[in-house]
Specification:
Chain A is α/β, with parallel strands linked by helices. Helices cover 38% and strands 13% of the residues of chain A. Classes of the chains: A alpha/beta (310), B alpha/beta (390).
């Protein structure tokens, strides 16, 4: 794996001066993943924070080919680009190896873009899809998505006098991608550059459809201090809220196993989106969330020890 | 040498696609257009084309993949109909705005609901405002010829706009017709071996950002550029048609006049109905009625000038629409022609007939009735539904 010194010499695909929020996890994820690519890259972004903040015409923060089409179709759009690349390679019109990376937020990936993603993964196009998952529609002002965790306050499922934020657990998109039997699926955070860089390098070394789901703390929607983005990312792993794991050809491997699994309240209490859960009377919700985290973690451990797809 | 063969509309379009041999085809099956992509998929499987065929999971993804492949620099085609076209609607104007010369085989079919698989023009007409060039076909020959011309039109740097060539569902798409097809090499020489894109996403040495967010300060100018391109496309469409005629003998214009020069009474129609109308006009002519027809081949851009000129001597005009605008003000063709005629001093009296929705048959008798109505046009309502039970 490339070390920090080597990574620091590589050309950045996304330059500074873009309009992402201070402390935003998304550009950290994008830069870390793209630094891991040794080949030239072509980028597609779904409509969302990343696209609006990096491309306001006539400016662009991208030093590499970049295409934005619409909200729900980053995967299908990339499928078209990759198809043209395969044709050009066959014709000898292109000889270079190119890495294709599509970025989508959780709204564009878990919800409105799920069909497009599923189709592209099933067809096995040779590209990496990265979900920068901040667990709600942050670009339009914190509306709930299928990735929003139970109990979180959002503007379309807010905490109020009789409701305590989102009533249901989030869907497990990483496992949905595993069920597509693609060669590589991983879950990561911005909190460990080693883990994220290694996963990106591995994805780039494999031909076929790859998917990485990266948890991305959002200053606006999660409501925390901007300097805590990476610490919060690590806390998500240490509490087993967002395990760092990968599934290569159906074989599970948990990449970071916390020595002492921290209680989920440590993660929840650090963000204002969960503040209402700490009011008297909501202890049951906190217990439920802890139980669910424990259950999913145990399932993951079992999948890993069984040594095959779950 | 060109040769005569029997082909349905779908087969004719698939044959043109084989000869065009695009870089990428991304498509999803839908009746009555399914055969186009089905036949083409077999060409891919048999190695008769070198196309990368993306069998997507929806029409939305078909058009999305077409945008990606075309932005990459490729020559890109697709085919669809009805609900499929409607499902593409979000992406159609993006393809136009990004100036991507995607070429589509569109088979005209009613849109739901209620669900119906047969011909009318509701789908294509609903897509008229998205910046695509739209060409209608009277028969398989026209569909075949227009599809080949569409590649040249769409990819011309003065145009750079997506283009759809349409046939009428089942009436053309599934009916055997004798058509003349060109040699593969003639098609390749006519369209050029490959597209010459100004901007290519796959050129990693010259990175570009495509599809940036475009706000109050630039969006408007970019939209007006589409309007300019659509305007410019008329010249290119005629140039391409003329070159095609010179090389292969079949001449096309934006419109076709059938016995119109001295006509007192005339109809305007698009697509397969024009074939029926020609027979009716011949029958009327033999009885001494000065009947004629204006066939519209090019609907986008709308050839208003040419239409005004062609209709200048007509006294009574019936405009036939195989779609409704649901405005209470008539169908798509009627409203456009009426608007175009507003400034004309000696304009014909015009009435509108909406007909054939959901594949309802249009017979010679219907058209005879229309011409009979034109003889007493002052007593007829402005808006009429033809062939509907009351």
């Amino acid at each position: 794996m490339a070390n920090l010194k080597e990574l620091s010499t590589r050309k950045e695909a996304l330059c500074g001066g873009h309009r992402m929020c201070p402390g935003c996890g998304a550009p950290i994820i994008v830069r870390q993943i793209l630094l891991a690519a040794k080949d030239p890259v072509v980028i597609v972004s779904a409509t969302g924070c990343l696209e609006v903040s990096t491309t306001i015409f006539p400016y662009t923060a991208w030093n590499v080919p970049f295409l934005h089409n619409a909200f729900e179709n980053a995967a299908a759009t990339m499928a078209g680009i990759e198809a043209c690349y395969q044709k050009y390679k066959r014709d000898g019109k292109i000889t270079k190896n190119i890495q294709f990376i599509a970025f989508g937020g959780d709204g564009g990936t878990y919800d409105i873009g799920l069909q497009s993603l599923s189709g592209a993964m099933e067809r096995g196009h040779d590209f990496l899809y990265v979900c920068y998952n901040n667990e709600a529609y942050m670009n339009t002002g914190v509306q709930r998505s299928g990735a929003t965790p139970k109990g979180a306050n959002t503007t379309t499922e807010p905490a109020g006098k009789v409701k305590q934020g989102k009533s249901k657990y989030r869907k497990d998109l990483t496992e949905i991608m595993v069920a597509h039997n693609i060669p590589y699926v991983a879950q990561a955070t911005a909190g460990s550059w080693v883990d994220l860089t290694r996963k990106a390098e591995k994805a780039f070394s494999i031909r076929g459809a790859k998917f990485i789901n990266v948890l991305q703390p959002c200053r606006l929607g999660w409501a925390y201090k901007p300097e805590e983005t990476l610490a919060l990312s690590r806390l998500a792993v240490e509490t087993c809220y967002w395990p760092a794991y990968e599934v290569e050809n159906g074989v599970y491997k948990i990449n970071i196993k916390p020595k002492d699994k921290k209680p989920i309240v440590d993660f929840l209490k650090s963000q204002d989106r969960f503040r209402h859960l700490f009011k008297p009377g909501n202890e049951g919700i906190l217990e439920d969330i802890q139980k669910e985290v424990d259950h999913r973690w145990e399932m993951l451990l079992a999948k890993e020890s069984s040594g095959k797809a779950g | 040498m060109a040769k005569d063969v029997a082909k349905t509309g779908n087969e004719a379009m698939a044959e043109a696609m084989r000869q065009i041999n695009p870089d990428v085809v991304a498509a999803y099956p839908i009746t009555p257009a399914t055969e186009v992509v089905m036949i083409f998929a077999k060409y891919v499987a048999d190695g008769l084309v070198s196309t990368e065929y993306v069998a997507v999971e929806s029409e939305h993804s078909a058009m999305s993949a077409c945008v990606g492949a075309s932005a990459a620099g490729g020559r890109v085609m697709t085919g669809t109909s009805s609900q499929g076209l409607v499902y593409m609607f979000e992406i159609l104007p993006i393809a136009a705005a990004l100036r991507l010369p995607i070429v589509m085989c569109e088979v005209n079919r009613a849109i739901s609901g209620p669900i119906n698989i047969h011909c009318d023009h509701s789908d294509t007409m609903a897509a008229r405002d998205f910046g695509w060039i739209q060409i209608f076909s009277e028969n398989s020959q026209e569909a075949y010829d227009s599809l080949i011309q569409a590649i040249r039109i769409a990819e011309d740097p003065r145009v750079s706009l997506p283009t759809m060539v349409t046939t009428d569902g089942f009436i053309i798409s599934h009916c055997l017709d004798r058509i003349t097809i060109l040699e593969d090499s003639e098609v390749q020489d006519f369209i050029g071996k490959s597209r010459k894109a100004e901007v290519e996403l796959l050129n990693v040495d010259k990175p570009v950002s495509i599809g940036a967010i475009d706000l109050q300060d630039y969006y408007f100018e970019h939209r007006v550029q589409i309007a300019e391109a659509i305007k410019n496309s008329k010249k290119v469409i005629q140039e391409v048609a003329d070159e095609f005629a010179k090389k292969f003998g079949r001449q096309y214009g934006f419109i076709e006049e059938y016995k119109l020069a001295d006509a007192d009474v005339a109809i305007v129609a698009l697509g397969s109905t024009c074939g029926t109308a020609k027979v009716v006009i011949d029958e009327l002519r033999s009885k001494g009625v000065k009947a004629g027809m204006l066939k519209i081949r090019l609907f986008r851009p709308f050839p208003a000038e040419e239409i005004i000129k062609a209709l200048s001597n007509v006294k009574a005009l019936a405009i036939l629409d195989r779609s409704d605008t649901w405005s209470g003000q008539g169908g798509h063709v009627f409203t456009e022609i009426r608007s175009a005629m507003y400034e004309v001093k000696n304009k014909p009296k015009m009435i509108n007939y909406i007909y054939g929705l959901g594949g309802r048959e249009i017979t010679k008798e219907h058209l005879h009735q229309v011409f009979a109505d034109l003889g007493k046009i002052d007593s007829k309502p402005l808006y009429n539904y033809l062939g509907v039970r009351e």
